[in-house]
Each structure stands twice: as C-alpha cells, then as structure tokens.
Amino acid sequence: MKVLIATAGSRGDVAPYTGVGVALRRAGHEVALAATQSFAPLVEEAGLAFRPLPADHRAHGSVQGTRALMRTAGTFMADLGAAFADAVDKDTELLLLSTTTAPLGWPITEATGIPSIGLYLQPTAPTGDFGPTVAGARSLGRVGDRAAGRFALRMTDRVFEPAVRQLRERLELPPLTAASMRRRMDQAGWPVLHGFSTALLPRPTDWAPHLQVTGSWWPHVDATRQLPREIEAFLDAGPPPVLIGFGSMGAGQGERLSEIAVRAVRRAGLRGLIQSGSAGLSARGDSILTIGDVPHSLLFPRLAAVVHHAGAGTSAATLRAGVPSVTVPVAADQPFWAARLAAIGAAPPPIPFRSLTADSLAEAIGSVLRTPSYAKAASAAARHMSTEDGTDAVVTTVARRT
C-alpha cells in the first residue's frame, strides 16, 4: 500500500513519524512523509520519500505564549492549506494525518475517496479525566474539563477555518466549516491512534472506542549511529552530567538562557551539557560542553537529569531513559506534559519560563539529584514503556485497511 504521512510544526511534530514510517516500510508498504522543507534531511535519513509542504512554522518568528501561538498557527495553517493537496499523489492509497494536518486532510479524503487515519501526538478529544492540553494542569472537575475540552476544539477550528475554506473551494467541495467537519468525522468513528505512553497519561475512561492510545512513537535512529566523539569523551571524563536544552523554544533568548544554564550548573556543582537548540545556547568550560541535535535514545540514558521545555517527545524520551526531569515549559501543550511528569513523580513542579533564574534552576536540579524518588519514578515509567509498542499498533491498524 502507498501510504502518505502528513505532519507539520516543529521537529517534535515531525521526528516521531520517521519511526512510524520505517516500521510501515518494513511491513511492506511504500511510505512518503510530507513535512515542511527544513525537515527533508530528517525524513530522507530514515530512508523515506519526502514530500514538501509549502510553509514553515519558523518563518513566523518566535512564539512566547498561547495567544501569540494561536495567531502564528492561523497564519501558518493558511500558508499550509494553500497547497496541501499538492502533497497527495494520485496513487496514494492511505493518508496518516497528524493533529496539525487532519483538518486539511479531511477535505482531501472527501474529494478523492482516499481513506485516512489520525496519528496524534497529543490528546485532543474532550474528556472528564483532565482538561485540554492547552490549559496546563488546571482541572475544573469532570463536567468543567469536558466543557473546557470542547471550547479548546472550537478555538482550534477557528485557527483552521480560513485554510479549510480555501481548500474546499479549490477541491470544488460544498461549503462546510472546520467545526462541522470535525463533528462529522467524530460521529463516523474516524480512527485516531495516539502516540503517547499510558505511563505518562492513562487513556481517558470516557473516550469512544475509535480513540486509541498505542504508546509512544520514537524517531528513527540508524542502528550504526553513535554519539559524536567530543560528547563521548566528555561523558567518559566524569560522572553523568545534566543536560539543559529548550528544543525549538526560546528563539532570540540564547544569551539569557546560556547565562542561566552555566550559572545553574556551576552553583549546583555539576557537569553540564548545553544543547544549542533554536535559542542558540552556547557555553564552554572544564565542566560544560555545548552540543547540537543528537538522538535522545543515545544520550539520555547516560545523563543524571534533563532540563527541558516539556515537549511531548522530550518528556517521553526522558522517561524511556529512566532519567528524571526539571521542566521549564514555554507554551502550547508543554505545561500539560510538565504537570504530568510532576504528577507521576518523575519531575518537581515546573518552573515557568518567564520566571526562570539561575537560582531556581540550580535549586530544582539539586533537589532532583538529592531525592531518589524522582529517578525511581522515571525508572518505573521506563519499565512500563518497555511493554508498549506504539509503531506495531500503527502497522496493525494499517494492515486492517488493506
């Protein structure tokens, strides 16, 4: 079967699908992955065909806060929707759609008859078990959480509305709002697989049967891949260090974050790896090394703790490695995952990004390393995650569609 996986966003929104794509290819399918152009090397390194999408989230600048994120997302989706249909080859037999591409894929499914399945990295369907991911850790009770979840979906539909309208016009489909499309797909029992671990977030008890949780999907890493020699030498030169990085967050704040990271590591009396990321962190010293992007699966098991922005993928990777976290969430679903790590005991309460200081960071890191329960909770989650096979669940579901 010719399968097209479509996703959009930051690296964390793309990388997990390379592992899914490789698993599907090994099962005998022809797999292409559609993403924005900057991720072509990541996709091609996994041996998958690449289809470019016509927008790049980075073109809209740094995002600091939920309201700014919603405005940026609207512009991004309008750009994306303008030519989304071009990524779908006429021979495509199945569409696998992320949270960010599903509302754009539904009109294509309607126009072409190509079936589709949702592959989501975050829970989006309303539930009484917890509030929407954009609300962080706040709970309004079961009734309130369901209402908040429905409201969050309405806000999401507003973001997609212009792009959906333009796409339906291009495909010569009758007018239908993004909200109406979502309701129609849900009522039809459109299958959605969720790529997160029940060690971090149990499947909601009130979800419909077509909403499944598979376990995490991991970025593809070649079996021969090794850490760079400089990192290996640093790791071998002393006790396990702490990693500090903010992924795709913090653009334009590299100097501030670098200073905080260095001072925090030194005040805690530790060795530190500083990951440059989108913020461009940089520091040098006898006990500090700046690094670029490296596979979490190779590096994290050799660390004492990870300071991170609590993106879904990074949060899962720390648990997979059995390593405790110190979280500094910035926006979107990051406060939610930070709260989940704290709830299972694998991290202390999150530090708000805007109020981050060297003192608060040093204190949190020291607390995590002095308190065995954090590492114990992370190790317990790692054992649970080892029993899950998220990509196999995707392969099995796709096989049922053949």
Give a short summary of the structure.
Helix content is 43%, strand content 12%.
CA distance, first residue to last residue: 7 Å
Number of helices: 14
| Order of adjacent strands in the largest pleated sheet | 3-2-1-4-5-6-7
**Beta strand %:** 5-15%
Binned, the helix content reads 40-55%
Give the helices and strands as they follow along the chain: EHEHEHEHEHHEEHEHEEHEHEHHHH
Low-pLDDT residue spans: 57-66
Globally, the shape reads globular
Please state the average pLDDT score: 90
Task: Give a structural overview.
The chain folds into 2 domains: 2-194, Glycogen Phosphorylase B (Rossmann fold, 3-Layer(aba) Sandwich), CATH 3.40.50; 229-385, Glycogen Phosphorylase B (Rossmann fold, 3-Layer(aba) Sandwich), CATH 3.40.50. Helix content is 43%, strand content 12%. The chain contains 14 helices and 12 strands. It has a 7-stranded parallel sheet, with helices on both faces. Helix 4 (102-112) crosses helix 5 and helix 8 (254-267) packs across helix 12 (358-370).
